[in-house]
Amino acid sequence: MHFFSSTKAGHLAHIGTTAFLGQVASHELIPPDPTKIENYGHLIIQALVALVTIWATVRKALQRPEEVVRVPVEVVPVDKAAHQSDQSNGNGLE
Asked: C-alpha distances in angstroms, 65 versus 45, 53, 71, 90, 94?
């Protein structure tokens, strides 16, 4: 199958059709309104945020829970200043 015709009339018809379609396209197409461009930009950003949010939610849901390590109370370090502040009246004036 040939894209272009092999005859002179076919070539001229192709050139004429292309020129006509070019004229129609150039007169019918107008540049987009800047507010439309801005609105489409906002829609694209919102769609990207939605996709990332969904991806993160699914990823978190499929994640294995972290293993909890149980430590005896005797091993946990205790801050002595925290115990002394528990005995104060809270205003710093003893």
From this structure: 32, 20, 18, 39, 46
* Dist. CA 46–CA 51, nearest whole Å: 9
The answer as to whether 91 is a domain residue is no
Q: What is the pLDDT of residues 31-80, one digit of tens each?
A: 778 898 899 999 999 999 999 999 999 999 888 877 777 888 887 787 76
Q: Are residues 46 and 21 in the same domain?
A: no
User: What range does the domain containing 25 cover?
Assistant: 1-30
Model confidence, pTM: 0.40
